[in-house]
Design goal:
The complex is a heterodimer of chains A (120) and B (108).
Chain A lengths: L2 E4 L3 E3 L5 E8 L7 E7 L5 E8 L4 E4 L8 E5 L4 E6 L8 E8 L7 E4 L3 E5 L2
Parallel strand pairs in A: 2-11
Antiparallel strand pairs in A: 1-3, 3-8, 4-5, 4-9, 5-6, 7-8, 9-10, 9-11
Chain B lengths: L8 E4 L5 E6 L9 E5 L6 E4 L13 E6 L2 E6 L8 E8 L6 E3 L3 E5 L1
Classes of the chains: A mainly beta (120), B mainly beta (108).
């Protein structure tokens, strides 16, 4: 069974750094892109970026370029989303999803999400 | 940056047909995708490459494309179809992906 297991909820203060994770199982990690999606409270989905773990090729939405860093560790089949200095406006649910660019082209398997709360 | 436009809400009675549109300048050149999200849950892919349905998605879900507008059609709407629906596509240079603003489908 294909699964994306995301790390637990985080509560941070403005200015903190943070890295959340997405561990995959049930398929060959390096063969599929992994994407990250933000959903702010009560709002819609926002596509942040994707990474191809096979060669670490990474693409960002212009809205998120320079604001976050997407990375992956092939040795443990895990993708990451990282902030160097959180802001209150980063408070949101963050989903990882497999982006099957070679097949359907869509985000066909999703994690359950990681809630990030940034508050002083 | 590139934008996809959806109506904020659509309402239908059970058994009727719901149509949710999504407009974007690059849609004639790029595929569209549709996702269903129910409260508290992660999104689910219901249509890919404009018209294709993933395995496990009921046949009442279909997609179509015409020029700069794509449409998700749900025939014979059921109460369980009440959800938010999001279209997704790619900018004209295939550099990044974007979601539409989402449409809340209400089953009356």
């Amino acid at each position: 069974e294909v699964q994306l297991v995301q790390s637990g909820a985080e509560v941070k203060e403005p200015g903190d750094s943070l890295r959340i994770s997405c561990k995959v199982s049930g398929y060959t990690f390096i063969n599929y892109w992994i994407g990250w999606v933000r959903q702010m409270p009560g709002k819609g989905l926002e596509w942040m970026g994707i990474i191809y773990p096979g060669d670490s090729d990474t693409r960002y939405s212009p809205s998120f370029q320079g604001q976050v860093t997407i990375s992956a560790d092939k040795s443990i089949s895990t993708a990451y989303l990282q902030w160097s200095s959180l802001k209150a406006s980063d408070t949101a649910m963050y989903y990882c999803a497999r982006q099957d660019l070679a097949g359907s082209g869509g985000m066909d398997v999703w994690g359950k999400g990681t809630t990030v709360t940034v508050s002083s | 940056s590139y934008e996809l436009t959806q109506p904020p809400s659509v309402s239908v009675s059970p058994g009727q047909t719901a149509r949710i549109t999504c407009s974007g300048d690059a849609l004639p050149k790029q595929y569209s995708y549709w996702y269903q999200q129910t409260p508290g849950q992660a999104p689910v892919l219901v249509i890919y490459k404009d018209t294709e349905r993933p395995s496990g998605i009921p046949a009442r879900f279909s997609g179509s494309s015409s020029g700069t507008t794509v449409t998700l059609t749900i025939s014979g709407v059921q109460a369980e179809d009440e959800a938010d629906y999001y279209c997704q596509s790619v900018d004209s240079n295939a550099t990044y992906r974007v979601f539409g603003g989402g449409t809340k489908l209400t089953v009356l």
